[in-house]
Amino acid sequence: MELMQNVAKMQNTQTQQPSESVQMQQHRTEAIQKSDINQEKISDQNAQKIDSEKDVETLVKELNDSISPFRTSLKFGFDNTSEDFYVSVIESQTNRLISRFPAEKAAEFLPKIQEVNGFLFDQKG
After folding, report:
1. Contact call for residues 79 and 32 (beta carbons, < 8 A)
2. More confident call, 121 vs 14
3. Beta strand 74-79 pairing with 96-102
4. Does residue 96 carry a pLDDT above 90?
5. Maximum Cα interatomic distance, the chain, rounded to a whole number of Å
6. Confidence check: pLDDT of 37 > 80
7. How far is CA 17 from the centre of its chain?
8. 66 CB neighbour count, 10 Å cutoff
9. pTM of the full predicted structure?
10. What are the strands of the beta sheet with 86-91, ordered from one edge?
């Protein structure tokens, strides 16, 4: 009789665990989604409006200075052919356009490039 009760308890425990696991996964998923939303809000708040050619030139210079230790054939340039300013990633030797994005986006990842630069080359990032 005890054996049957023990088996019944084990079966109950096993059937309850998957539902708890599903609940834990749901909580994790919700937490990740909330974190992603918070990160988007923070990046929106930190985004600065770049509205002058001088600001873009300064940004491009800082980007180029930040990647210079990497000895890459890429460089940054800017495009002011429209109302909005765009930063371009250009292959230096052929002047081929690799990528183009709004200047505000470049301003967001400049600190990240500087941080990686600091880690790799022991400079203040």
Report:
1. no
2. 121
3. unpaired
4. yes
5. 86
6. no
7. 35
8. 22
9. 0.56
10. 74-79, 86-91, 96-102
